[in-house]
Every structure is written in structure tokens, then in C-alpha cells.
Request: fold
Amino acid sequence: MNIYLAEQPERRIAIISKEYALIIKAIKIDKNVTKPSCAIELVRKESLTNQGFTRLTSSEISGFIGLIEVDKLIFIATISSSAKVAAPIPGETVKKISSVDFFCLNDQTWDFFDIDSNGYPILPDRDANDIQVTLPRHPCADIRKLLSNGSFFYSSDFDLTSTLQNRGVGAHSLSTDNFEQEYMWNSFMMGEIITYKDRLDNEAKQILDDEGFLTTVIRGFAETFVTHVKSVKVAMTIISKQSWKRAGTRFNARGVDDEANVANFVETEYIMYCNNYCYAFTEIRGSIPVFWEQDTSLINPKVQITRSMEATQPIFDEHFEKLIKRYGPVHVVNLLSTKSSEIELSRRYYNQIKQSKKLKLNSDILYTAFDFHKETAQEGFSAVSKVIPLVLDSLLISGYFAYDCKAKKVMSEQHGIFRTNCLDCLDRTNLVQQIISYTAFKTFLEDFRFINKGDYVDESDFTLKHNALWADHGDMVSQIYTGTNALKSSFSRKGKMSFAGALSDATKSVSRMYINNFMDKGKQQNIDMLLGRLPNQQAVQLHDPINEYVTSELENQLVTYTSRSNINILLGTYNVNGATRKVDLSKWLFPIGDKFKPDVVILGLQEVIELTAGSILNADYSKGSFWETMVSDCLNQYSDKYLLLRVEQMSSLIILFFVKSDKASNIKRVEGATKKTGFGGMAGNKGAVAIRFEYDSTSFCFINNHLSAGVMNVEDRKNDYESIQNGIIFSRSRTIPQHDSIFWLGDTNYRINLTNEEVRKELTLKDDGYIDRLLNHDQLTLEMKAGTVFKGFREPSLKFRPTYKYDNGTNNYDSSEKARTPSWTDRIIYSGSNLQPLAYSDAPLLLSDHRPVFAAYRAGVLTIDEPKKIELTKKLYNDYKTLHPNEASSLSAQLVNLGLEGDEFIGRTKPPTVPSDISLLDMAMRNELNQTSSASASGVSSPTSSLSRSNSQISEPLQPKRATSNTVIPSNSNNSSRVASMTSLKPVLRPPPPPAYVKPALPDRPVAPIEPIEKKETSDTGPVSSTPREPRKEISPPPGFSSSVLTPRNSSASSPAPVVSKEVLPTDNTTKPSPSPQSPESSSSGTSATERISSATVTPHVNKSMSAWEPLTPK
Reply:
């Protein structure tokens, strides 16, 4: 294939194959539409004649792999060079991608230039330093480098994403219709093109497949060795495919996600082919399918399980159900050791299998535990063969795929799979998979009498080649996941471990530590960009008028397939000062008893371990487990069951995420992140731990922070806040602001700008308005008003006494020599138009020198009914066709119906005569061609008018201003010959091949600057209100709960109130508890003295009785 460019009358790029061309151009649909869009045409190659196309590159391209938008520029991705590395069977070849190129559709800056390894254009006869000054770095340089690193493969003649057993021997299986999307690494870039193809008729689909326009790229390994089994010549191949569903580097991708995808999931197929028989055996590997992580510590990173068994079980079951459906019974081979760092994870793995109600142990799933380190400690790696007796029966039952090449029939099939894992699923896993593969292969050779049973073949050439294949395979998978070759590869190749091999392994281990800590974040960013996972990253859309109509109507009718509901959230923050004494937490977690049972509970704890130098360096994470248990016991004291979905701990900071069991299915994409700010970012005594998740279609983020201490260190606290705000990054590069609802909670350490005596006097006298008078000097309030921290955030009306610092076990403020000034260090603030605060107070727990603080919220969440949305989409397509009968009856409308017509889809056949100047897809009926001819004669449309997505009208192209040495398809200014050709429908002879390409001189044109993406900051500072209900008998609220909806202290009266759906009140007359002596007084309608705002505008309260809370029936 070749790639050509035409700049007149508009910029277009054509990918030309043997007979056809795919023409793509960027378009601007509407100035208000920000989505990157382009139009696409499939035409005969001859129709490009006289269109002024110039060859863009001197070499051919090997494949088109998709479209991607970067910095508002749309690029076409192509394979520029490749090398044949494998041929599993005759007629099937696998090629490794050596380099890729990206051609811009809407900018000419990088036209006709080669790009160096750093991403800068290379100008002939220029110094390298001048190049970087003259032209900017290519926006796709990092993805280009990723795709060219030798780990990506493709095939032009068979479906590389499927196994030999599934696609069949000798079958024509290049169609993208049957591809396993899980292994298609360019699925994001190619998604719209595949959708375009799906809308075509079968003939046009076949053209796209046969011409090789759509290339599927996998990531993994492929290699073929030719050898002999005795006198029989055989070709041995390994093809390995890594899933992109949970792709990432070693410490950035661990365990399972909420869609039941695991990290480093790799399907490996070993194939042997000879003239008589073909053999294949498949194995898989993947991270343990529970929610676990490891930090990137240089030495002995600790395994942390982040979700409870009950909450993990549905995802665990779903993962294995998918495997069983695809492969048959799954035999798990767990290689984790019994040492402390892995034993907990290994136990959890087995317990999840044993306690599953959907998986039948020893039937659907088999389990073998093999402590690799223990078994090989004495005898070396050769002792790994001890695993074979444990799995042999299962291997013989599941079998292998065998095909008789002479008789052309299947002899046997593989029904079952071995799923092997260690911690990283790399070194140990590769060695055990190699042993299992060799045993299965020997079984086949004996069954088909290539060798006799009992023959010694361990040193034969085919065995050595088999070992070399697996060693190369292990190195590549390890390179993808860790950046280094596999450990133990010396043994894999030679069957013994030498001193040089051991030294090499030590070097690789050190390299892994460096790469994991200093390089993996950048690599993860590039992977996420390739897969379309970066925030605000959008797939390039293909222009489609019908699809635009449907999309617009879907937005207008959003209410018909979405629903809004409310969930109750309880947040709590508590600096526990290293306490480990068990206490009843009910006054904190259930401040009004079982009258309010939240759906989601988020608790942030600080100083769970004592802040000493020793404890900071060697954090005792068992303290976190102590608090997990105590909180879980308290939450589950009533009939509702709460599940622990996530724990995130960093040194002395911990955040816990619990959810009601009946709401757990609504929670998706739970993640955690940490940021150290202590000692300049080196220690975790200060900083933040964060959790984010999505409840249906609404995203939430919670940050538990502990900022710098000291009365005068306001600037340090500001720096900590900014460091956390910028440093907390979740997967797919999500940041804190990119969520619908955000909460900051924790020990902020902000103090009161008054003397100790002044503060204590106010607290002792308790005169009217004393809380407000103190808050007027509160550092956090002043900083938020100034907009220096927490811009756009709000805090409900604060009516409780300072929470710091008390004498332990008493209600007395600090009486020590330091006599610290009482302050509100423990705070909870929020941002989100869907949030309605219900309560904000402290709790009378005397466990620490702080008091715990809680806040209750009602959050509106959005739910999308996907089946209803699909049904509406079909209806809108049909409605469009009804309203536009002429357009609906045309070929164009048939090609954009998304396959929604079913049996009504009209078949089309190719006419015997193919006019050269007519596009392939305009050949439905002769009368349509006559109409096209008439239109062309009148100058309305271009002679290349085809079934274009944009339906654009192209005028006579102007000759582009290029160097005369360029290869140019000739242009003729006279339209008459082309019109006559179209009218007579006589084919025009194909033009002769273009002359050899000559590198053009540097074009004299200005360099087009890259437009930065405009980031729009939105602030949500509206007051919270609700619709008043009918008057009811006033009931005194319990401690910490106001009789009216809490008004944010730093809110704006001009902001709209959040939309929160109303809830039906129960009919029972359960009386709420009366306020305690320490309870603050309830506010009445209007603005109370204790409700403060950040501007001069005073927002009145909306009266709302406590009956707005839904009373729950006591157990």
C-alpha cells in the first residue's frame, strides 16, 4: 500500500491498495462541536486520477491501523516497516512491527519529513540542533516509540487474535468480524473504521478485508523455528497475545478490575506443523483475580488486598465464568510461595474458589498449589518437573488440538485450559508453562508415533528449539510488563542455571527496581493514550448525518432512558493518635442510631501508627487491620450488611470504603492513590490517601489528608494541598477535579488566629455567637474565602466546638506545658452540584486527643438504562428513514443503518462494468450513475463523488505547490473528458505506475503551531436547598443534625441548587431522640448566626424538618 496527499481543494489523504483507495479528510461539523471528526470514502484506485494527489512517503506502508486525535490534530496511523517472524502453518505469516508513522489530516507541519527517535523532523543537510528549533516535536512521538518497540505484531493473511483450533486450518479468517477484541490493541484507533465497515454490504466488507485496509495489531510474541523430530521436518511456533483490557506496567496494573479483567493476562499457543499433522496447545496466565496492589518501594514491596471477600466474589466468579465459557474447565496452577509476603494472597485465592456458589471445585475449576521457591530450593530449577504429576491427569483429560493435513480433518480438540500464575506472572509462570507445554507436546508425539514411549529426547534438537522458543517468549512478556528480560531464562534455554545466568538475574532485578520507580509512569501514560484512556480523550468520529441526528435526539430524550435517584453517604474523619484500644464507634458511625443507615461509608483516619522516626520508616500495617475490623463490626450491628470494598493506607494514613451489600453491584472502577508530603515528599507521615469510584454513571472522589502542623505554617499547608491536588493521579491519568463529586476530609491542621487565652475564654463563657466569632479567625475559612486553597469547595455550617486538642480520655482542652490553642483541625468539605449536606458535627469519643467528625450527605446519582437506550436508538434510525424516504432509499442510507434493519437490509451486487471515475459504492443502479453524470456535467459535484460520509462537493482541484521531483498523479483542467467518460460508463485504463519517489526539498511554508487544548474550569459554589414540605410538628433534632438543610458557609447565592430527587416519607411516627446537653441549637428559617458564607451575599435557609430524613425501622 501507498499513502498520498492532496491539498486542493481541501486537504485529503488517500491510502491506496492494489485496486482501491481509502480517502480520509478532517472536517469541522459545527463550531460548537469539539469532537474530532473526519469523512471517509472507499473508491476505485483509478478515480484518483486528475485529483492532484502527491505521494507522502518514499516507501510503501504495510498497514493502516487507525485514527487518533492528539492536541486537536487528527492523525492516520500506519505501519511503515515490519519483518516476518513466524509462519505457524502454510499460508499464514506473522510480522513484527518495526516502525510506524502518523500522518496528520489537518496540519501540514510534518509532511514529507522523516521523524528521528526523539520525535523531531529530520531536515536534509541540517544540524540536529537546528531541526528542533525549526519544527516542533511530533505529537505522536511517544505512541510511535511504543508501537515500534518490537512487542507488536500483525498478520495480513489470517486472524492473529484467534487460536488455530477456533479459526480452523486453512480457513479464510482475515475478516474483522470474528476478531477477539480483547487482543486487538488498536481497537480504540480502529473502532470507528470498523463501525464504518459494519454498515457496508457484504461485498464492500470483503473488499476492505481483501485489500488489507483494516489491520489488527496484537501485543505479545511470535516466533517460528524449523527443526526435525527424528527424520520428520517440522515448524514449531509460539504465538502469544496479551489482553489490553487491564494493560499496564508492573506496579500500575495488578489483580482484577470491576469488569473481571486481570493484569498481565496472556494467551499462549504452541503450534507444530509438518506435512502430515498439525498440533496446537494453548495455555493462559494472569494476575490473581482479587483486588490487590503493591507499592513501588525499592525493597520488598508489600502486597495489599484492597477489597473484602464478599465484595470480591461476584467479580471473581465472573472472571472464571468467562474463561470456562471460552476454554472449558480451568485448571489453576498457583505458584505463590508460603512466605509472608505472598501467603495471604495465596490463601485468599483458594478461599475465593472454595466459597464460590457458581464455580464447582474439581469440576469447572481445578486447583493445584505448587510453592515454586520451596520446591526448587534444594534441587534447583530442575525440580519444577515435580508439578507434572500434579497436573498430568487434567492434561490428559483436556487434551490438545490435532489436525490431519492429508485427510483434512480434525483428529482431536483441546477442551480445558491451564491458568498459571505467580505474583507477576512472569519468571516462575513461564518456566512452569514451558514444562507443561513440553509434556503435552511429548504426549502428542507419542500418540501419533513420532517417537516411542520411553525414548530419551530431552537433548534432541526439537527439545532445544522448544526451550529456546519459550525462553524468547518469556523475555518478551517480561519486557512488556517490567522493561527487562525474564529471570531464570538461562535455565529455560539450557536446562541448567550457570553462574553467569544467576549474575544476569541479579542485574535484571536491579534494573526492574529502577524502571518500576522512575520510568513506568511515563510508559503507563503512553499505553493509556494508545488505548484511549486519558481524561477527555475522544475517539475520532466519522461524519454521518443520520448518526448526528440520532445522537442529538438521544441527548434531547435523555430522560426517557435515564433515571435519577439518591444515595445517602456518611463521611468521617478521626485522628486516632496511635490508639489501639477497642471502643464502641456507634456515636460516630450511627449518630442517631439506626434511624439513618448510609448506603456508602467513607472514613479517613490519621495517625493510626505513632509518628516516630522508626514507625514512619517501618510502618505497621496491622494497625490498619485493627481499625478495619472495629469499623466493620460497628457498621454490621444492625440488619443491613456492609461490605468493605477498598482500603488505601500510606504509613499512618488510612481511608476505608464500605458499601451496603445491596448497593455493591452499582459500584464500578474502584481505585486508590497516595501522595506523600512529609519531609519534602519523602515520608508518609503527612500527605493524603484517596479513593475514587463510580456509582452507576456518577463519579466520586474522596481524599483523606493530613497537612503540615504548626500555627504559623499556613503556607506549608497550602503547598501540601497543591502537591496532593496535582500528585493524586488514578489510572487512565484521572485527576481529582475530573469527578462529579469530590470530598476532602482529614486533619487539615488549620488553626485559629487568636491567642490561646482569647480562644479558651470564648469556649468557657459560651456567649451567643461564640462559635461564629471564633470561626471569623479560622485559618481554613480565611484561606477558602481568599481562594488560595480548595477553590470551588464548600463546607456546611459548622456548629460544634473545636476538635483539637484534648487531654486523652477527657473533655478538657490541652492542659500540658505546651497548652495548644483549641482549633478546628478536623474538617470535611465538598464540591458537587448533586450533593446535599444533611448533618455536620463531632462525636463524643474520648479515645484520642482529637474528636471524630462526621458529615452526612444525600447525593443524586444518574443511571443509564442501556437496553432502553439501544431500543430508542433503533427507533430513531427508523424514524429518520421514514422522514427522509428519498435519502433512506439511497445506497448512502443503507450503509449507515448500523445493522439495525435486520432482515430488511437490502442486498446489492456489483455491476459487470466498473467505470473508473465512479466510486465503488456508487454502483448500485445505472440511473444513479446517470444522475451523477448529469450532476458532474453541471459542475455540482466532483467526478470522484462517492458514498462519502461528508457528502461534500469538491470543485476542480488546483495543482499543489510542491517540488517538481514529487510523484504527482496528473491533473487535467478540462472536465469534458471526465464527464464524457462518466456518461458513457466506459472504464478508463489504469494509469502507469508512478516514477521512483524523490525526497522533496524543504517546502517554503510557515510552521503551524500546535494549538493547546483549552481547559475549562468549572466551579460549583451554589447553595444547597430543597423544596419546602408541608408544615409538620417540630421535632428537636438529635446531636449534630440540624432542623434545616445545612447551608454551605462559603457558597454563592447565585449558584443553582442541586437537583436531588424527592423521597417518599414513611408513614410511621417514630420519634427521634431528643438532643443531648452538648448538642448545638437548631437553626430556624433564614440565615442563622452560625451560617457563614465566603462572600457578602447572605443566602437564606430553606426550612426543612428532620422528617426529610427517611426514618428506618429499628431492628
In short: The radius of gyration is 34 Å. Confidence is low (pLDDT under 50) at residues 888-1040, 1050-1115.
